[in-house]
């Protein structure tokens, strides 16, 4: 090993990993402190889950997992998502099951070496996604930022796939050319919705199976006061457990927050995450 190789080996940071210092470290702590204060005020309890998990394949595509074996040769993954573990730990391993609101401030890890820091929440036995959106709004108000709000319903692309015999990866990968290539008026209109008025118009012409999911999407958007709203009925989340209403707060090409409704082990829940790194970058500018 020559001197240059030794310097790289001793000081290089792996691609995808995170380093915080100075202003970025201060902003990270400020965001976490503000978020935890807001969540505690809203009745949440904090939980910190293990870095290692047997169940990450339920949340994330296995090719994105950092995997290895335990002492009994059972496959373990580094935590790539917290939702499934939080719900199962809260319902199966914590004796006090009266607590339904949990939050966590911890990183997740994805293959090959990506760290993502996030502030997450889960509300057990609830379908009130509006509560999650209002908490995110409270934090954004504290930080004095106004991202765009995107509202979707994961049921819609799933139903369209069944109706038209399409693979779900058409929506997962945003293959708009395949969608428009179906030459269906109602599908073309779904792909170009801009506001609540467009949703009212398209509800009148879509197949019956899509009417209720579209109404749920519109009702959620109508019930949330926010300046910049984007309607995205054909958006499909890559997180495996989200199944109905879903939202994201966006700024430029960055996702500041995202969450939705889901069902785990027969329990209907809602939750969302604030993505610390995207917020730090936003506030730094």
From TrEMBL:
Its EC number is 2.4.2.17. InterPro entries: aa-tRNA-synth_II/BPL/LPL, HisRS-like_core, HisRS/HisZ. GO terms for molecular function: ATP phosphoribosyltransferase activity; histidine-tRNA ligase activity. It comes from the Bacteria. Residues 24-166 form the Class II Histidinyl-tRNA synthetase (HisRS)-like catalytic core domain. One of its GO terms (cellular component) is cytoplasm. GO terms for biological process: histidyl-tRNA aminoacylation; L-histidine biosynthetic process. Keywords: Amino-acid biosynthesis, Glycosyltransferase, Histidine biosynthesis, Transferase. It holds the Pfam family tRNA-synt_His. NCBIfam families: PRK12293.1. This is ATP phosphoribosyltransferase HisG(S)Z, hetero-octameric short form, regulatory subunit. The gene is hisZ.
């Amino acid at each position: 090993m020559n001197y240059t190789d030794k310097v790289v080996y001793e000081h290089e940071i792996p691609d995808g990993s995170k380093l915080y210092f100075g202003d970025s470290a201060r902003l990270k702590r400020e965001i976490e402190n503000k978020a935890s204060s807001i969540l505690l005020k809203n009745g949440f309890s904090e939980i910190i889950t293990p870095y290692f998990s047997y169940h990450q394949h339920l949340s994330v595509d296995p090719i994105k997992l950092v995997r290895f074996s335990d002492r009994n040769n059972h496959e373990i993954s580094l935590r790539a998502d917290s939702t499934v573990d939080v719900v199962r730990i809260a319902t199966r391993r914590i004796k006090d099951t009266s607590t339904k609101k949990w939050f966590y401030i911890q990183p997740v890890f994805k293959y090959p070496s990506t760290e993502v820091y996030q502030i997450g929440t889960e509300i057990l036995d609830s379908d009130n996604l509006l509560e999650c959106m209002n908490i995110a709004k409270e934090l954004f108000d504290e930080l004095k930022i106004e991202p765009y709000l995107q509202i979707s319903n994961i049921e819609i692309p799933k139903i369209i796939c069944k109706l038209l015999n399409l693979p779900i990866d058409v929506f997962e990968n945003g293959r708009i050319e395949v969608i428009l290539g179906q030459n269906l008026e109602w599908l073309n209109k779904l792909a170009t919705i801009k506001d609540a008025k467009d949703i009212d118009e398209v509800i009148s012409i879509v197949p019956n199976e899509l009417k209720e999911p579209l109404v749920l999407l519109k009702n959620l958007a109508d019930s949330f006061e926010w300046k910049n709203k984007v309607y995205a009925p054909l958006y499909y989340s890559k997180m495996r457990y989200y199944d109905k209403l879903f939202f994201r707060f966006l700024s430029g090409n960055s996702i500041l927050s995202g969450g939705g409704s889901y069902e785990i082990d027969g329990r209907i829940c809602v939750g969302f995450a604030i993505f610390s790194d995207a917020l730090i970058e936003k506030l730094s500018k």
